[in-house]
Structure formats: structure tokens, C-alpha cells
Amino acid sequence: MSMTMRSPERPRPLKTAADAVTKTIGMVSALLTAAAGYGIVTVVQDDAAQGLLGAIPGIITLVGNFLVAFGIVKRAEPQVTPTSSPQDNSGRRLVASTATEGI
Length: 103
Prior knowledge:
Elements: H1 13-37, H2 43-76
């Protein structure tokens, strides 16, 4: 038995967004299939649209990965001291410590 209890009131925005995208793609796909079945769109048009709908999750994943990567760079970069030009925020050059105490 798990010690962690889930609260039904706890918001889950990522799951909610993923559910909405999945349901929307499913509905559009079903509508296109029905439209092709009734002759509203041609089979070729339906195949093209279904291919595009199939690519959407991959495109979303790609964009999400880029945003995460650039977000990490933007957040972490100010915390890293470049070895080519070590200096503090005031522009003073950093020097290596010669202290051996506490090592």
C-alpha cells in the first residue's frame, strides 16, 4: 500500500492539456473519416489530412523538447562560470584558490 494519497482536487495541467489534444485530434480524425465515407472529401484528401493529424503529436513533442532545451539553457547559463573568461557579476577576474584547508 502506498503512503502517498492522491487528492481528487489536485490540478493536473499537463494531463489535462494532453487529454484535450488527444481528444481533439481523435474527433477531427473521426470527422474526416466520416466525411470521406460520405463523399464530402475524396479519399486522397482524407489520406493527406490523416497523415497530417498523425504528424501533430510528433511536432508537438519536437517543439516541446526545443522549448525545454532552450529554457534549461536560459535558466542555467547565468549560473555557470565560463572557463575561457572567469569573472564574477561585477566583472572582476576570478582566480583559483590556493587554500588546501577543508579539502
